[in-house]
Design brief:
This protein is of the alpha+beta class. It has one domain. Helices cover 31% and strands 10% of the residues. It has a two-stranded antiparallel sheet with strand order 1-2. The structure holds zinc ion. The site of zinc ion (ZN) has 8 residues, from strand 2 and helix 2.
């Protein structure tokens, strides 16, 4: 999994061990999966490429990543994709919840 996003090695290692499932839809990653939809992709939870700490970097599946695109987290959670998949502020991973208000 080449990292083209300028994510520090230290962050990368922590996140790879933490996010065994998509941080959004919860799909379990397979080590060797190179499928564009179900494979792991690097995600900046807040769309700011300068935020490369473990609190803003996560792994999500290709399908969630391409759906989220440049939307903010809140906008995206209200999208058709999330509604259909049952992705809500309650169902996402803890690292994502931390970015959502109470
Ligand atoms: Zn996903």
């Amino acid at each position: 999994m080449p990292n083209r996003w300028g994510i520090p090695k230290a962050t990368e290692e922590i996140v790879i061990n933490r996010d065994l499932n998509c941080i959004y839809c919860g799909i379990r990653f397979q080590e060797s999966d190179s499928n564009r939809k179900t494979g792991r992709t690097w995600e900046h939870i807040i769309n700011d490429l300068t935020l490369t700490g473990v609190e803003n970097i996560g792994l999500c599946c290709g399908s969630c990543n391409s759906s989220k695109g440049i939307k903010t987290l809140q906008e995206w959670l209200n999208s058709k994709y999330c509604t259909e998949k049952g992705i809500t502020s309650d169902s996402v991973a803890l690292v994502v919840k931390k970015h959502l208000g109470p």
